[in-house]
Design a protein that fits this description.
This protein is mostly helical and 242 residues long. The chain folds into 2 domains: 4-30 and 202-235; 35-198, Ferritin, core subunit, four-helix bundle (Ferritin, Up-down Bundle). The protein has 8 helices and no strands. Helix 2 packs antiparallel against helix 3, helix 2 runs antiparallel to helix 5 (121-149) and helix 5 runs antiparallel to helix 6 (153-174). The longest helix has 33 residues, at 202-234. Residues 192-200 have low confidence and may be disordered.
Length: 242
């Protein structure tokens, strides 16, 4: 039979574990509910939407008007990929309450006009590949920076998906052999320090401190209980009554 003291110790240990478990669950739930959507996060959703608004028709034109069979294949792939990405983008925007444009920017419309006014299929191929290759390089960098710094899990996951699609499109466009790399803009590194993504809010720091104190206290209590139990086991029955 277990003694009263042993039962009390077991109950104390169980109580400590329950308290720690409840506190950890509350902290996790609070963190999940408190994920803000910043203006930078919104920029990602809007940029992906805008990319689809001009690249889907451009891909369709490449599929039907391109001179090169490879350009036709690339156009088809880009059109389908952006169609899928656009569905995810609009669903996430609705979930997070982000407004989306319904037409491309003036600059993007100008690129479409340039393709539409191409005098020959070969000229269309060149314009299509280089306009899309340059645009993909710009948005690839922007998405990567947002992916690295966002604190929102949904935005982070979507940015990962979007950048995988963009990298695939860059590779496809370059596979045509028409990409003019000398005309691409020089890469620019972000001025935001890498440590900025690691900044913690006051609530995050408090949560970590409290958890550390609770875990430390529980560890000390458990060690004391174990040592005390071993000491009692070493005593002879007659010594317990002295």
């Amino acid at each position: 039979m277990r003694s009263v003291s042993e039962r009390l110790r077991a109950a104390a240990v169980l109580l400590v574990l329950l308290v720690l478990g409840q506190f950890a669950l509350a902290a996790i739930a609070g963190a999940q509910q408190a994920q803000p959507v910043t203006s930078t996060d919104e920029t990602l959703i809007v940029k992906v939407r805008l990319a689809g608004l001009w690249e889907m028709p451009a891909g369709n034109w490449a599929r039907t008007r391109g001179a090169s069979p490879r350009v036709k294949e690339v156009g088809m792939s880009i059109m389908v990929d952006h169609g899928r990405l656009d569905v995810q983008d609009r669903a996430l925007a609705a979930e997070l309450g982000i407004g989306l444009p319904d037409r491309p920017t003036a600059e993007q419309q100008g690129w479409l006009d340039e393709m539409q006014n191409a005098r020959t299929p070969a000229e269309f191929d060149r314009i299509f590949v280089n306009r899309l290759r340059a645009a993909h390089g710009v948005i690839f960098s922007a998405i990567a920076q947002i992916r690295a710094g966002t604190r929102n899990d949904r935005i982070r996951a979507f940015a990962t998906t979007a950048n995988q699609a963009v990298l695939r499109h860059i590779t496809l466009l370059e596979s045509t052999g028409l990409a003019e790399f000398d005309a691409l803009p020089q890469p620019q590194l972000s001025s935001v320090p890498a440590s900025a993504a690691l900044d913690l809010k006051a609530t995050d720091i408090i949560t970590v401190v409290v958890l550390a104190l609770l875990l430390g206290g529980a560890t000390v209590l458990l060690l004391w209980l174990i040592r005390n139990s071993r000491t009692r086991l070493k005593l002879r029955p007659g010594e317990l009554n002295e």
